[in-house]
Structures are given as structure tokens and as C-alpha cells.
Specification:
Layout: H1 21-32, H2 37-46, E1 54-58, H3 64-71, E2 75-79, H4 84-94, E3 108-110, E4 131-138, H5 148-155, E5 164-170, H6 178-189, H7 205-212, E6 216-224, E7 227-229, H8 232-240, H9 246-251, H10 254-265, E8 275-277, E9 280-287
Parallel strand pairs: 1-2, 1-4, 2-3, 4-5
Antiparallel strand pairs: 5-9, 6-9, 7-8
């Protein structure tokens, strides 16, 4: 995925390529974000998300995961400090006053950090949220868990004891067909040795983040999240929208990255022109102390 399927706002060495942030956000929302729907559904089913749920989504991006929770009756709040264009799309989805329809009850979107939210206690003195999600998968790019600990720490005053916190990550590279495609980013960007370089997911990535955040692991699961695209052009646009290839574009140029990305996608192209890459993602449910 939310993120990205990598953390799209990570800094990296070198000069950032010039991109249209609105076009990229649209590509993310319309092409790439939906790839993680099975992950969101699995988590919501397991935690019985419904009308009693008050969900805080960290790094909510363009808001698909929040929309799915709201459709189950949950009150949702999303925060994201690194993607104003994606957050604007989340507002279109969840706060659509501009087109004359009512906003979903209990919905709030904040361009910032958890600390920018109001006091964690409501009028009744109960904590504001009883579920926290960080759906942007880690274990795909070097340093992609950096900053997550601070987000989790910022959310702590807003929740009570024993509240589930959901972390997400890539599965083993041998079970993620997209891993071979993501290696293109590392190969082309290696001279920069940027923080956004691809790396294989490790078995305990999520547990290590939870431990550093002072959370207690309380279950995990694996979910099949195949990446399916209408054609190669669609796949290139979707993958570029993650931001993972930015360092490669800065190190070479857009044309070179497009060429090598298309070559890497070729083994996954089917006879009808569609692109299909099976992947496994993992989630961890941890509890606040």
C-alpha cells in the first residue's frame, strides 16, 4: 500500500525528479491504492470494525482504507503530513460537501501529525480512538520504517490501554512477484545509495517496529494482494506513483527508468495484455500498554 506501497515522503539523496504531484496522486488513487484492498478487508474482518469503531489512520493518503472502514459504520480520522495532494483526494472521497452530498458522520482529515489532533479525551472522558492503523507497508525500501515510531508515539495520548494498533508490511520476496520489478529502482539508483532503495522484507520487520514503539504483539496474518493492471502502461503509471523510483529517475532519467521498468514487467504480461503479479503482504496487530 497506504503507503505506498512504500513510504512516499521518504527523503533520498540526489535531486528529486520533476513530477506533476497531482497527476501522481491521481495515479495512486485510481491505479495503485486498490491493490491493498484485500489487506484492509482482512484486518477489518478480524477486528470486527463497525459502528462502535473509532479509527485513527496514520499516513492515510488518499483515504481508501478509511472509506472502507466508514462504509462499515466506523467513525474515521486520518492524518498525513507528507502528501497534501493525496489528502485532497481523501477529502473528495470522505468529505464531499463540494458536490452537495453530506460528509460521512464522524469523519476528520488532518494535514499533519497525530499531535495536531485535539485532546485524546472526548466529552465523556473516554479515549478518542479504539483502533489505530498504519497501513503503509514497510519492508520494501531501506529506511521505510523511519518516522513510523514517532507517528505511533504521537498517537498514544489519543488511545486507551489495550487498543489494537495495526502495522503492515511486505511478505517474503520469494512470495512477492513485484520484488523483481522493484529491484529496478535499486539497480538504477545505486550510485546515489538513497534511503528509498529497494530491500527484501525481513521476517521480524513489523515486530521490531512494535517493540521500539512499546507495543505488545497480539497476532498477525498474511494476505494475498496481487497487483493487476490493465496493461503495461497502466502498470508503469501505478508503480511510479509509489515514489519508489524517484531516486532512479534522479540518477538516470525518466526515459531510462520507463524502459527498464517495462522490461522488468514483461515476464508478468499475460496474453491479453494485462499485467499480473501475485504478492503476499503481512499485518501485525499490536496492543498499547
Amino acid at each position: 500500500m497506504t503507503p505506498t506501497l512504500v513510504r512516499h515522503h521518504l527523503p533520498h539523496a540526489g535531486t528529486a525528479p520533476r513530477v506533476d504531484p497531482w497527476a501522481r496522486a491521481r495515479d495512486w488513487a485510481e491505479i495503485q491504492e486498490r491493490m491493498l484492498v484485500p489487506l484492509y478487508e482482512a484486518v477489518y474482518e478480524r477486528l470486527e470494525v463497525g459502528s462502535a469503531t473509532r479509527l485513527l489512520g496514520l499516513g492515510c493518503g488518499s483515504g481508501l482504507a478509511l472509506l472502507m472502514a466508514a462504509s462499515r459504520g466506523a467513525g474515521v480520522t486520518g492524518v498525513d503530513a507528507g502528501a497534501p495532494e493525496r489528502l485532497a483526494l481523501a477529502r473528495e472521497r470522505l468529505l464531499p460537501e463540494a458536490w452537495g452530498t453530506r460528509a460521512r458522520a464522524g469523519t476528520r482529515l488532518v494535514d499533519g501529525e497525530p499531535a495536531d489532533l485535539a485532546s485524546g479525551a472526548g466529552d465523556s472522558g473516554t479515549p478518542a480512538y479504539n483502533l489505530v492503523t498504519a497501513f503503509e507497508p514497510i519492508g520494501c525500501a531501506g529506511g521505510d520504517s523511519e518516522g513510523l515510531g514517532e507517528l505511533l508515539a504521537g498517537a498514544r495520548p489519543l488511545v486507551g490501554r489495550g487498543v489494537p494498533v495495526v502495522l503492515a508490511g511486505w511478505g517474503p520476496p520469494e512470495r512477492c512477484a513485484t520484488a523483481s520489478v522493484l529491484r529496478v529502482a535499486t539497480k538504477l539508483a545505486d550510485p546515489l545509495r538513497g534511503a528509498g532503495s529497494w530491500r527484501p522484507a525481513l521476517r521480524d520487520d513489523l515486530e521490531e517496529v512494535a517493540q521500539r514503539a512499546g507495543l505488545r504483539p497480539d497476532g498477525s496474518g498474511r494476505v494475498a494482494c496481487p497487483f493487476g493492471y490493465a496493461d503495461v502502461d497502466n502498470a508503469v503509471r501505478g508503480l511510479l506513483s509509489t515514489g519508489l523510483f524517484d531516486a532512479a529517475v534522479a540518477a538516470t532519467d525518466q526515459a531510462q527508468v520507463d524502459k527498464e521498468l517495462r522490461e522488468a514487467l514483461h515476464p508478468h504480461k499475460r496474453r491479453d495484455g494485462t499485467v499480473w503479479m501475485p504478492n503476499i503482504f503481512r499485518y501485525l496487530i499490536a496492543r498499547t500498554p
